[in-house]
Each structure stands twice: as C-alpha cells, then as structure tokens.
Design brief:
The protein is mostly helical. The chain is built from 3 helices and 2 strands. It has a domain of 39 residues. Strand 1 and strand 2 form a beta hairpin. The two termini are 34 Å apart.
Length: 95
C-alpha cells in the first residue's frame, strides 16, 4: 500500500508535531514498511495455534476469596477526598 504525504501531514497535525520535508519523506517510507509488515502478518493463518509454554503445562492457582480492605482503610492515606471519591487534579488540558 502506498502512503501519501498528505496522510503523514494529517497524522502529524493530529498529534501536534511539525515535520520537515525530510522527516515527512522518512515517515512515508517507515509507515509503508509498517503497513507492508502488517499485511504479511495478515497472510499468516495457523490452523491450530499452540500456546507457547516455556515451562511445560500451564498451571493456574485456584481463585479463592480473601479478606479485602474496607473503604475506610483504603482512604486513610488519600491526600484528598471529595464526596466519597479520591480527588485527582486534572492532568489533561481542554482546548
């Protein structure tokens, strides 16, 4: 699949970076390689995939209920609570 420079420019704009002409050309080439590789992976169709088990048989522990902390114990070390929930300062800025 051929990648167009316009697609690379649009992706760069969406993620908020500026690319030079040289960088655009390199990104076009790299994205083309990635898509080519992904298409090769699509072609692989194993009939019955076998899981990789480096240590032999897969052994899982039994799921059993255990004592958990109460809400009061959990919030003891919380720096700030609001209406019964952890307060976390906003980290994502709105445009």
């Amino acid at each position: 699949m051929r990648i167009k420079k316009e697609v690379v420019k649009e992706i760069a704009e969406l993620i908020g970076i500026e690319l030079s002409k040289k960088e655009e050309k390199k990104m076009v080439e790299e994205l083309a390689k990635i898509i080519s590789y992904m298409n090769k992976i699509k072609e692989i169709s194993p009939k019955s995939p076998t899981p990789y088990l480096p240590f032999g048989e897969l052994i899982l522990r039994k799921d059993s209920p255990k004592k958990t902390l109460s809400k009061e114990e959990i919030v003891l070390n919380a720096p700030r609570m609001e209406r019964g929930y952890f307060y976390v300062p906003k980290v994502i800025k709105e445009k």
